[in-house]
Design a protein that fits this description.
The chain has 14 helices and 9 strands. With about 325 residues, the chain is α/β, with parallel strands linked by helices. It is globular. It starts with a helix and ends with a helix.
């Protein structure tokens, strides 16, 4: 057994072993026993590694050292997709924790890269919610947050308007919300909603943004769109049959990043998808189930920064 543990652990340099253990323990919330199984080392060694990580400053308010394999993936993603920056976090041992880990990294990135005078256009999603939770409460002068989506009429843990308001509160920004539902009942209602002067004012402000912070949604059973019920299961099946691989700002797109011809896309009350190419975007998403929709979003939008995990990064690069 000792030979197997040593062989498994030897894949990683000492500093990377510390960083991986710290991610699993402090971000993903795994027990030291579970970490010992994942990394192939004894529980006593896990304890020593975590203690050393704290003493050496690897663990501060955030985990300082990057995982070596993740750094290699970051460089490859930058080259493949023409990104100015990529951030790749270790894959979660429990895949349901991927949004938490990616959100942790996104929160740290935003804390370092939102500057005075920025206008931030904001999407929605579980990963973005975790990112906003991780943001330190620090006023940044003359900032503005603009929601790119209508809101939910039934209160839910994830709501585009709530996310925008929480982000703005964290950084002391002005906040502008789209005062309409995410989906209208009929296309003509959507046209009426979006033509209102108050709505057009918010869309205009979003167009002036210098940063868009976006996530994407898949067709998985635990996706917010599937769970919140504002699209019928039959409509989701029709969208998949029509070639949709997921959604961005609740617009469903195909593998090439093109809008799918379906009534659902004519009912969505959100920032126009075709205008996304005009705003430098930070794409925050990951997990194996998101690879196809992430690739489509990278083809469709002006993504300059990608924050993701190892699973999605490898999938994007292995095409």
């Amino acid at each position: 057994m000792a030979m197997i543990e040593n062989d498994k652990a030897s894949r990683f340099p000492d500093v990377e072993l510390k960083a991986r253990a710290a991610w699993h323990y402090y971000v993903e919330g795994l027990t030291q026993e579970r970490i010992s199984e994942i990394l192939g080392i004894g529980r006593i060694k896990v304890h020593r590694i975590l203690s050393a990580a704290r003493e050496e400053g690897v663990v501060q308010f955030r985990i300082r050292d990057s995982v070596v394999e993740c750094m290699v993936l970051e460089e490859a993603l930058k080259q493949r997709f023409g990104l100015s920056q990529a951030v790749v976090v270790p894959s979660a041992a429990d895949r349901s924790n991927a949004p938490l880990m990616i959100g942790h990294a996104a929160g740290a990135y935003l804390a370092d890269n939102v500057n005075a005078g920025d206008v931030i256009a904001l999407g929605w999603g579980r990963t973005l919610k975790f990112a906003i939770n991780e943001l330190p409460r620090r006023p940044i002068a003359r900032t503005t947050v603009v929601s790119m989506l209508g809101g939910l009429t039934h209160a839910q843990p994830l709501n585009p308007t709530e996310s925008a308001w929480e982000f703005a509160e964290k950084i002391g920004a002005e906040c502008f919300l789209l005062p309409v539902p995410v989906y209208a009942d009929r296309p003509e209602q959507r046209d009426a909603f979006m033509s209102q002067r108050s709505v057009q004012d918010v869309v205009f402000r979003a167009r002036r943004a210098n940063i868009a912070v976006l996530s994407v949604g898949s067709f998985s059973n635990d996706s917010p769109i599937a769970n919140y019920g504002f699209i019928k299961p039959s409509e989701l099946e029709e969208l998949q049959a029509a070639g949709a691989v997921g959604d961005i700002l609740c617009h469903f797109i195909d593998a090439e990043g093109r809008l799918v011809d379906h009534e659902v896309n004519r009912r969505v009350c959100a920032y126009p998808l075709q205008d996304l190419a005009d705003i430098p975007a930070i794409l925050v998403s990951g997990g194996q189930e998101k690879i196809a929709i992430m690739r489509a979003a990278l083809a469709n939008t002006k993504v300059s920064v990608l924050i993701t995990d190892e699973d999605a990064a490898k999938g994007l690069l292995n095409r």
